[in-house]
Structure formats: C-alpha cells, structure tokens
Design goal:
Layout lengths: L6 E2 L8 H6 L8 H10 L7 H4 L2 H5 L35 E5 L8 E5 L1 H8 L8 H15 L12 E6 L2 H12 L5 E6 L6 H6 L3 E8 L2 E2 L1 H9 L1 H8 L6 E4 L13 H14 L2 E5 L24 H4 L4 H4 L4 E6 L11 E6 H14 L5 H45 L10 E2 L8 E6 L15 H11 L4 E2 L12 E5 L8 H19 L5
Parallel strand pairs: 5-6, 5-8, 8-9, 9-10
Antiparallel strand pairs: 1-6, 2-3, 4-11, 6-7, 10-11, 12-13, 13-15, 14-15
Helix pairs in contact: 5-15, 6-15, 7-14, 9-11, 15-17, 16-17
The structure holds pyridoxal-5'-phosphate (PLP).
The site of pyridoxal-5'-phosphate has 13 residues, from α7.
Length: 510
C-alpha cells in the first residue's frame, strides 16, 4: 500500500527562455533515443558538464587552494599560503579514550606529531590525505568498485565535508539553476528543502511505499512530463533525491530489486540519482546472522550502477555518507562519492564557502578508522545497529500497546511500517478528515505542534517532510534517545490528543 501520495507542485518560478536553454531539457522520452544521446557523447552515460549550474560554472578556482597540492612536490619551496605557523598552536596532543561499546576494553589513542599538525593546519579542500585514501579504499571494498576505473569517463572520487548536509547543499548548488526540476521521494528528508527553496528549484514529490521511492511512480512522473513541460515550461528533471535505507522520516528501506528498478528508470530518462544514505551501515536486516563483513547487506545504488555499465556507462549516482550516526553528530564529518567532475565542483563550492572541513575532526575520525580498520568499523556499526534495533523493538511494542486497538473497544489511533534501520517511527495518525486537498486522512500539524506540546510530548508533524507542504496526517517520532521508561507515557499523551480531536468533531466514529 502506498504510504504517501505523489504530488507535483504548481509553477514555482517563471522560467526564462535562457534558463530553459541552459538546462538539460529532455523531450518526451523515446527511450532508445535518450540512451543513444546520453551514451554517445560520453561513456559516463550522463553529460555531467551540461548538468552544472550557472553558479558552478561562474565560480573561479581559488587562487591559493588550487596550488596546495604542489606544496607536496619534493623539493618545492612554498611561500604560498597564509598558513599560521603550527609552532604557535597551543595543542600538542589529542588523547582519544574509546568507550567499551566500540572495543572490548577502554583504549587510548593519541594524535600527535605530523598527524596533529596536519589536522590543525589549513589543508586540502577535499580533506586529510590519509583519511581520503582510507575512505576511497573503504568505498571500493564495501561497494565492490575498482579504485582504478577502466577509463577517465567512469572515474569516481571521494571528497570529505562537514557532514553530508554540507555536501548535499554544495551538490545542489553545483547542479541546480532557478526553475530546474528535481524529483524527491515524498515524504522527504526535510533538511534539503530550505536549500532547494532558496535555489528556486521546482521540487516534485514522488510517491513512496513501504520500500521508499516507487519506481512505478517515478516512471509515471517522468513519462508524463510532456504535459507539465508544455503547460508550465518546467525543464526535465535533472536529479532524483532518495534516502534508500531507513528513510528519514518514513523508515522505509528499498530492496535491491527496487533499487534496480529505480536505477533502470533513471537511466532510461537520463536523470542523476542522489543517494543520501547515512543509515546504510546501521541496517538491522541480516544483523548478527553472519560476521559484520560477510553479513547480508542490500547493495547500494552506487554499487548497482556498475551492473550493465557497459551498456549504460557509469556516473548515474552521487552518494552521500555520514559519520554522524556512527561516530558522532557534532564531529561534522561526512563524505561524498561520485563522478569526478561533480565532486570537483562540490570542492569548488567548499573552497569558497568554508575552505575545507574541520581538520581536527577528520584527524579524530582517521585515528579511529586506522585503529579499527575495515573490519573494526563494520563491527562497531553492527554494535550501534544492535543498540537501535533493541530500542526500536521496545518503542514499537509500546506503540502497539498504547496506540493500537484497546481491549476496552477503543480503536487504533495510529499505524506504521516497521523501520528496518535508523531511528524513526513514522506514525500515520487516525485523525478526523479535513476539507483541504489531500486532507482525507486529517492534518497532524496543530495536533502535534500545539496540543501534543501542551500535553508535554514533542514530535515532528508530517507536513515538515512534504515537498510542497501538503497537509499530512503523519508524525515523526524518534526512539534514539528517549529514556525507555518514558516511551509509554509519551504515546499515551499522543493517544489522548487523537481521541480529543475526535471528541471535538462530535459523534463521528473513528
Ligand atoms: C537523510 C539524512 N541526510 C542527511 C542528514 C545530515 O547528516 P549529517 O549530520 O552528516 O550532515 C541527515 C541527518 O539527520 C539525514 O537524516
């Protein structure tokens, strides 16, 4: 059963002839023609350069940063950068004490000498060299992709940023012109919406079900584009944004089959996939069935795009990973992996927005990763996943008991799909219908943001995750940090709010 309704925004921005010309505007799609067009000019499958935004193309290289790599050439004498002298930095050592949750016993790691200097000093835009190498090898091994691509055209690279939010924002800036269309799963991670609004993107929601983004809805939206193109002059979508593992907020996880279908549609219509996957390593599916390295994991879009790459080329996926849920949210380290040209342009954004991510944070992450190695990182992630699975089980059991049908005859006030990773339970509240469009299931906004708050329970109303602010009867609840003994009371308060909403309606059956 679909859990959200596809929507298409009305015209957001008047699109000038210039805008239309400068974007990747595909005609109603004759599949073979698109395939021929997208593969003939470049074996990447997509012409990434043609997808760049005008701002990206206008942004000059940083005069100083572009010379940083040359400083590493043996014998080079650098009078280049206004780098402060590290002798003046007051820190001589960072000692990391690792909790037993990540190790059998407490371990102390030390960051000092040149590692510390590199972390504390201005450095390369794309991150610390050793961390970048580590992550490149990690991506290669985890997703089964060769570090040395067979040609320039399928070259990929990694860049490190201040969390995946930072890199997503820069990627959108690099690709989207005002009026450009972007498809997003609906509901969508709300954190991307302000950036898309500022870029004046034409954001179009695509229906999701218990496996997230629906390939059939995606196909329908793209094949129907002709009509909207004629009436609203929207350029053909450039990007599909999706969170394939434990989507935030819905908790939905796409199977490999679903991903293959979505990828096939994206290829046929010439659209780039943004795979935002911060919960991938925290998937509950297959947890404990095998070792952390060999256990079942759903292949990612970035891995799957290699299949049939001979026919379609690669470069269809830009992948966003994050250490926020694995190491810490405040450490602000994430990384992007994708077609070289697009990652280069994300770096250009970094070089003018914030010069680089935090070197000190990266040095801490590097120390942990070099200590853990590949196997140790996966083991740590499995421990974290097991922690959240236990919380999910408790949370869901309480939800069933309190929000489900009651023995005294009171009906269920919510339903949901069990999340297979992550930290959210996305509840569809059984609310009195409202008259607004799409309001047949009721609107949770005032109930969650006012009534529930007044009763002493906070959650996020569903409308926050709707690409075009459509009315929603959903509410996002999180089981990550609430003390387990408080969960029941929190759900009781939500139940009271829903029952009161029905009582206010008068004698209508729930
Ligand atoms: C789907 C999704 N993408 C991106 C982010 C941002 O992550 P980061 O902390 O790495 O910036 C979040 C954070 O909650 C998220 O849920």
């Amino acid at each position: 059963m679909p859990i959200a309704v596809a929507s298409q925004s009305s015209v957001l921005t008047p699109v000038t002839v210039d805008t239309v010309k400068s974007t990747t505007l595909l005609p109603p799609v004759a599949i073979d023609a698109v395939k021929a067009a997208t593969t003939s000019s470049s074996s990447n499958g997509l012409d990434h350069r043609a997808m760049l935004s005008r701002t990206a193309l206008l942004r000059p290289d940083s005069a100083i940063r572009s010379l940083f790599p040359a400083e590493k050439v043996p014998g080079m004498l650098s009078l280049l950068a206004g780098k402060p002298n590290t002798d003046t930095f007051p820190i001589s050592n960072i000692a990391l004490t690792i909790k037993p949750i990540a190790e059998e016993k407490e371990t102390i790691l030390s960051i000092s000498g040149s590692d510390l200097e590199e972390g504390l000093q201005y450095g390369q835009t794309w991150g610390l060299t050793r961390l970048l190498d580590w992550l490149t090898q990690f991506q290669s091994r985890l997703h089964g992709r060769s570090v040395t691509p067979s040609s320039e055209d399928n070259a990929w690279r990694v860049s490190i940023g201040g969390g995946s939010q930072d890199l997503l924002t820069k990627a959108f800036n690099s690709l989207i012109n005002p009026g450009d269309s972007i498809l997003v799963e609906s509901p969508v991670y709300t954190g991307i919406l302000p950036t898309l609004a500022c870029l004046q993107a034409n954001v179009v929601g695509v229906q999701t079900d218990s496996q997230g983004l629906m390939s059939s809805a995606l196909e329908e939206t793209l094949s129907n584009w002709t009509t909207s193109l004629q009436t609203a002059a929207h350029p053909f979508p450039k990007i599909i944004y999706t969170v394939p593992t434990a989507a935030n907020p819905s908790g939905a996880t796409a199977s490999e089959q679903r991903k293959r279908e979505v990828l096939a549609v994206a290829r046929r219509f010439g659209v780039l996939i943004f795979e935002d996957d911060p919960y991938m390593l925290l998937s509950f599916d297959g947890l404990g069935e095998d070792t952390p390295e060999t256990r079942r994991r759903v292949r990612t879009y970035w891995s799957l795009e290699q299949d049939e790459a001979e026919e379609w080329g690669s470069g269809w996926v830009v992948r966003f990973d994050s250490f926020s849920k694995i190491i810490s949210g405040g450490i602000r380290v994430g990384f992007v992996t994708g077609p070289k040209l697009i990652v280069d342009y994300i770096d250009k954004e970094t070089s003018s927005a914030n010069l680089q991510g935090s070197g000190a944070s990266q040095a801490i992450v590097l120390a942990l990763l070099e200590h853990w190695k590949y196997e140790g990182l996966l083991q740590h992630c499995d421990r974290v996943a097991a922690f959240y699975r236990k919380r999910r089980d408790n949370f869901e059991a309480k939800a069933r008991a309190v929000l489900g049908a009651q023995s005294d005859g009171r009906p269920a006030v919510a339903e949901w799909v069990t999340p297979e990773a992550g930290m959210f339970l996305w509840l569809r509240l059984n609310l009195p219908p409202v008259s607004a469009p799409h309001g047949q299931h009721g609107d949770s906004f005032s109930l969650v943001s006012e009534k529930a708050k007044a009763k002493g329970v906070l959650a996020v109303p569903g409308v926050a995750f709707m690409p075009n602010e459509e009315c929603s009867s959903y509410v996002r609840t999180s089981y990550s940090i609430i003390p387990e003994e408080d969960v029941e009371e929190a759900f009781k308060r939500i139940r009271d709010c829903v029952e009161e909403a029905w009582q206010e309606q008068g004698p209508v059956m729930m």
